Amino acid sequence: MALFLLGTLTNPWIWKILTTNIFIGILLLITTYSLYQRKKYFWLLLFFLLLAQLKITPRANLIYRDNDDQRIVQMRLRAYPYDLTRVGHIIEERNELISIFRIRENIFQNLDINHFFFAGFPRQTVGISEFEKFPFILLPFFVAGLVSLIKERKVDSLYLGSFFIPLAILGIIGNRSLMGPFSLFPFFVVSITAGFGFIKNLIYAKN
Amino acid sequence: MPKINLKEIIIVFGILIFSLGIYIYKLSTIPNGVYVDETLNGYNAYSILQTGKDEYAKAFPIAFRLFGSYSPPLHIYLLVPFIKFLGLNATAIRLPSAISMTITVFLFYLSLKKIIGKKDYHPYLETFIFTFLPWSVFFARVGYEVTLSLPFFALSFLILLYTFEKAKLFPLAAFVLSILSYTSQTTRFLAPLYFLGVLFLYRKLLKDNWKQAIWGILIFSITQIPNLFLFLTPAFATKNSLFYTTDITQRAKGIPYLAAQITWPLAFIKEFFARFLAYFSPKSLFLNPDPDPQRSIPLLGAFYPYLIVPYLVGLYSLITRNLSQKSKLLIFTLIISPIPAALARDPFSTQRALPLFFPLSLLSFLGFEQIRAKINPLIFLPLMGCLIIFSALQLYRSYFILLPHERAVAWSYGFDKLAKEIKDRPDEQFLIDQSRIKPAYIELAFFLKLDPAIIQTSVDPEITNHYYENVVFDNSYSFAQITTRNIVWEKDIYQEQIIVGDNLTVSENQAKEHFLTKVFEIKDPVGEIIFVGYKTNPKLKCAATLNESPYCRN
């Protein structure tokens, strides 16, 4: 429990969320605890957390193109050889393809570890509020936790769901929330806590 | 060595021919333009060929001064025969890269086969996909020294894989690693680091085979003598400016309450690891191109996005399995390779981290093999077919259609046309403004195929005499009918010449005020002006200003 509290409360992210919206902060703490304890009602809490994420996050338009985007599209269309012009129109202008590319971009944004531990540094994304979610000194614990959970075969559906479901939802709604992709918070905290446990066991085993 | 059958030879040979085909297709025109780094290498090789000296009249240097960077020499010496037989042109300076990458493809095949180690396993499909990965295609088609480092790096890795079984191969691995340090700036630092790491990783094996260990260390040390000589001169440290000292100092100042002895290392750790991890970030590897438009393909990362799945599976399998020696070597290579790049300021540089892409590809295709083993071939093969077609289309669109169009300026497009304008006006003097244009002297020398003796005589003899000490580069040159430097308005408009700059160099009002007449303009494929030439009219200017300027009285 002490390790869990250490993982949950020693990061600036939770305090930012608690001070911005206390209800979401409390929901987040309970959801994280339920994942840590592997409680079945985690799914229900995750559902509410995702609803909150949906409500809070300004929706990214997956097909909207501003003037500059349109200028670039026109410039690119001119590059296509004459007999490939139709293909060019499909690739550069079809809404379906554009939305797939944008969803992909949103997903990859949240797969970037620097986004969580280094405020996106050194490759910050334009248009997204980047802030340090976890202090970088917690990164070794996160990696150790992830590796130990995988090695000890403790990766269950709850743990996987806590990562992949928010990842998919964030892929569609985007990452423009001022509180960040907080639906991924439980996954990170549980991994960091596992890392604390792993390192602790390592130290005790040596002694 | 593994047994190789005829079928395997034919298929692998077919893949290599295919890869060489992609790498040399429209090689002289895509990328559209010849970048200064390429012309610099090409012209210095031409200079060596013609005179036995580089552009600064230094005979056979151990590191080339190139804009004050003192690059390792192997690439330029290797270019010499290509320029001898193909002439001084884009194809001649890019072809060695295409060949280097084709050799790397072959070494990739052998390395993956060795790592997986299953009987009758032939990574044909993996190697085929490897041939047209965005990073492979991009670096196979540019005349950069760093591409030459790849086959040496891959070969040393392969020899090290075999060294686990035959310790006798260790001296050979040491020799190849040492040669690697003479191929590029990155590997000059990477090779010794890698060698030290290998000594540690193979410590048990080398303890049992101490004679091989001594031979290896001896060979590595002896072949490093030129680098050691360079280490004692300022030429070795020219890349120190790429280190992020200011960023660390600023970050350290932002850490409250702690002493500088603690904050500085903390800030360094943070700066370093943020950069280091960026080289493993899926966003950087599979989605976003290199931030430098000259070092990337529009809309494509270093790998195709779908390869993130085998990449993660590869990582997963490395974590879950009991690590074999081969896996340990792969992990070690993955960790060491991006260190030189992570010590530089850039957020993500594919060029500096190029050696990393070899073990990263191995890791991804290790995961690929795991997936293939678990999925029914009736599902796997059609799925792969679709992904390969989609990837090929993406590559064609981004590299062969968009890159020559929208990255032309980044690739120094238009210097061949400027050279033609100069050639067509043999009686005119040209002043090339250098305030925003990359060093023009080398591009013009390249495209005009200027006699190297002319460039050599235009250089300050002090530079030649103290070649490895004189590290500051000045892009002001004066040779033949060409001067390259920043414009001095008070003086240059009173001299009979053509002033060349970009579209911001001379405004409409300035042209009117100084009686400048536009004589030519050169546009890029998008239609934007890249060079404009204005002819001065000193007589009119002096008359209009009543000979006010001292330059009117001469």
Q: Describe it for me?
A:
The complex is a heterodimer of chains A (207) and B (554). Chain A contains eleven helices and no strands. Chain A has 207 residues and is mainly α. The longest helix of chain A has 22 residues. The radius of gyration of chain A is 20 Å and the shape is elongated. The model of chain A has no long low-confidence stretch (mean pLDDT 92). The interface between A and B is medium-sized, with 28 and 32 residues.
Average pLDDT of chain B, rounded to a whole number, is 95
The largest beta-sheet of chain B arranges its strands as 2-3-1-4-6-5
Mean pLDDT of chain A: 92
Query: What is the chains' assembly state?
Result: heterodimer
Range of strand content of chain A: under 5%
Would you identify the regions of chain A where 5 or more consecutive residues have pLDDT less than 50?
A: none
Helix and strand pattern of chain A: HHHHHHHHHHH
Strand runs of chain A, count: 0
Overall form of chain B: globular
Which structural class should the secondary elements of chain B be placed in? mainly alpha
- What summary fits the major beta sheet of chain B? 6 strands, mixed
From the structure above, extract its key features.
heterodimer; A: 207 residues; mainly alpha; 11 helices; 69% helix; elongated; B: 554 residues; 2 domains; six-stranded mixed beta sheet; 27 helices; 5% strand
Give the topology:
The complex is a heterodimer of chains A (207) and B (554).
Chain A: H1 2-9, H2 12-20, H3 22-36, H4 42-56, H5 67-79, H6 85-93, H7 95-110, H8 113-117, H9 139-151, H10 157-173, H11 185-206
Chain B: H1 6-24, H2 36-51, H3 74-86, H4 90-116, H5 124-131, H6 134-140, H7 145-163, H8 170-180, H9 185-201, H10 203-208, H11 210-223, H12 225-231, H13 245-253, H14 260-278, H15 282-287, H16 308-320, H17 325-336, H18 339-342, H19 354-374, H20 377-406, H21 415-424, E1 430-433, H22 440-447, H23 452-457, H24 461-465, E2 477-479, E3 482-485, H25 489-492, E4 498-501, H26 508-513, E5 517-523, E6 529-535, H27 538-544
Parallel strand pairs in B: 1-3, 1-4
Antiparallel strand pairs in B: 2-3, 4-6, 5-6
